[in-house]
Design brief:
The chain is an alpha/beta fold. It is 34% helix and 27% strand. The longest helix has 17 residues, at 192-208.
């Protein structure tokens, strides 16, 4: 599976899967982003580091279709894109998983994976109804691709652990064939065992050929999972380092401007 996925994307050394080129975004008199450029390759985890107000949220919302850049452009698989809204980005294969996960707590796993895209069937030959069993089965297969196995798929997700809920959000993106996953603080508020599970899932995503943008305040997590680190400060890109060529102290200095 991994070899097929990498071949599809042309390998980690091929052209970038996603490019942000000279993007600027202003809100009134506040320059949230100023001439920011970065790229993401298939099978790579790119970490975004920066203090509060650095521009991380504005950047990921610009990539995912929430905001339109004032200047610059986004390129996806080599072509410029201008997403009208987040759904347009998702339809093209760019999925953002925010910290709140956007799950419906009262629905089961299958219904959450297919939320807004429900599979339908007909009962008694003519009554339209949601095909809950098929949605659970397909959701289970998507989770199994990430080596995630839940005992039951028919319980409301409110009954699941934080790590399992995070896995469902990731599984939803995988089911809909996301090629770029933007993960905003995915390990925040999770216990240590669940954090380890999320990290294992991200490694599985890398192996499958997806590109991951990983946003976190936790430098230990960043250095555990990322390949490259981009540092933002006050809307500016102030540094980019290969993980192997830097250390937490340098990243902190870039973040605070010391």
């Amino acid at each position: 599976m991994a070899e097929r996925a990498i071949a599809e994307f042309g390998g980690v050394e091929a052209a970038p899967l996603l490019e942000v080129v000279g993007v600027s975004k202003q809100f009134g008199g506040v320059h949230a982003l100023e001439d920011v450029s970065l790229h993401l390759r298939a099978g790579e985890v790119l970490a975004l580091a920066g203090d509060n107000g650095a521009g991380k949220s504005t950047l990921i919302k610009t990539i995912s279709g929430v905001h339109r850049p004032d200047r610059g452009e986004i390129r996806y698989r080599g072509a410029p894109v201008a997403f009208a809204n987040p759904q347009a980005a998702r339809d093209r294969g760019i999925e953002t998983i925010y910290q709140d996960l956007a799950l419906a707590d009262n629905l089961d796993v299958g219904a959450n994976v297919f939320l807004g895209r429900e599979l339908m069937c007909r009962r008694f030959g003519f009554l339209p109804a949601m095909d809950r069993r098929r949605m659970r089965e397909e959701a289970g297969r998507s989770l199994a691709q990430l080596e995630i196995h839940l005992d039951r798929l028919d319980v409301p997700v409110r009954q699941l652990s934080g790590g399992q809920r995070q896995a469902i959000a990731i599984g939803r993106a995988i089911h809909w064939q996301a090629r770029v996953l933007i993960m905003d603080e995915p390990t925040a508020a999770l216990g240590v065992p669940e954090q380890r599970k999320v990290m294992a899932v991200i490694r599985s995503l890398k192996t499958s050929g997806a590109g991951v943008i990983f946003i976190s305040h936790n430098l230990a997590d960043i250095f555990e999972i990322s390949d490259r680190i981009v540092v933002l400060r006050r809307g500016l890109k102030v540094g980019e380092r290969l993980k192997a060529e830097t250390n937490p102290d340098e990243v902190v200095r870039l973040m605070v401007g010391g």
